[in-house]
Design brief:
With 342 residues, the protein is of the alpha/beta class. The protein has helices at residues 30-36, 50-59, 69-75, 90-99, 115-128, 142-152, 174-185, 285-297, 305-324; strands spanning 4-9, 40-46, 64-66, 80-83, 104-107, 131-134, 161-166, 188-195, 208-214, 219-224, 234-238, 242-247, 253-258, 268-270, 328-329. It has 2 domains: 4-138 and 283-304, Rossmann fold (3-Layer(aba) Sandwich); 141-270, Dihydrodipicolinate Reductase, domain 2 (2-Layer Sandwich). The strands form 2 sheets. Strands 14-13-12-11-7-10-9-8-15 form a 9-stranded mixed beta sheet, with helices on one face. A 6-stranded parallel beta sheet has the order 3-2-1-4-5-6, sandwiched between helices.
Length: 342
Amino acid sequence: MSQLKCGIIGCGRIGCGFDDQVIPNVIRTHAKAYFENTDTKLICLCDIDRNKLKKYGRKFSVKYLYTDSSKMFETQDLDCISICTLANTHLDLVKLAVKNNVKGIIIEKPISDTLSNAEKIIKLCKKSGIVLAVNHQRRFDPFYHKVAQLIKRNELGKIQHVSVVYGGGIANTGSHIFDILRLFFGEIKMINGKFSHNTSPNKNDPNVDLELEFRNGIMCYLHALNTDNFGIAELNVFGTFKRLEIDLITNENRIYEHSKKISDYGRLVLSKKTVPHRRPATDIRLVIKNLVECLKMDNKLLCDGMDGYFSLELIVASMQACENNNKIFLPIKNKDYKIRSR
């Protein structure tokens, strides 16, 4: 198979803009990831903002620029499309992509604005044989699978407590957090919470403080900070043998283990061991790479539509728990609750 012909709908931050700020060895946008992958050719961009189209068309050497996604599909024979628009537009854009016979779709998180629309997206892609990847980037990074295996092998011991500090809204940042927690600890059966006094920069996507109970009995607590002050996303896992601390932005991690000094009374001290990671941060090249491998070699997709659905369900459950001041048990029956996110 020759180079896959790819397009992007939505030239905002994750579509094109984040790479305006250059971070060595890290790619943060769909556009740059397609541009640098030898198996893909970025041939078109679509956005309602003509200035963005001109700017990123020049930057990524893209000739075909559109303000109308229908026109783009009419005139371009695309293999893959990235949907980087607001969640409430995702279903209609997936319908367009399906109608025009694309082979692969990367959809930004959250997968949609309601669970019912998410189900429609998943069914449309499954019926048409389209590979549907949801951009929970950490799920594509081998580092996080190493951590999942470490936990599964009980190298930390029995899990006593899990805590997360985050910011930036429960839909925007929380979607990533929920996906990683599911990878590490399995499915969640109950959510309880309240709106945080540490506000989110996006009034439509609030910060919330949560208590989560997994089906296996593990408890986890999410605490929100206002990222106007500083950015943070950290996870702490306390086992009976060791403690693991992960910076979810940089992948830097620390392991604490029992001190061998009798005078330390069994406290945990910083170990020289860490979970190895190659990149200074997870980047979107891994998502594009996995999509290409699925299309060219029939490899396993690392984050699919159902992963997106479950993450969205946890966002909805979080909002309902905070609004109703009540515990919410999964699965959710009302699938038409609408979330708002960037």
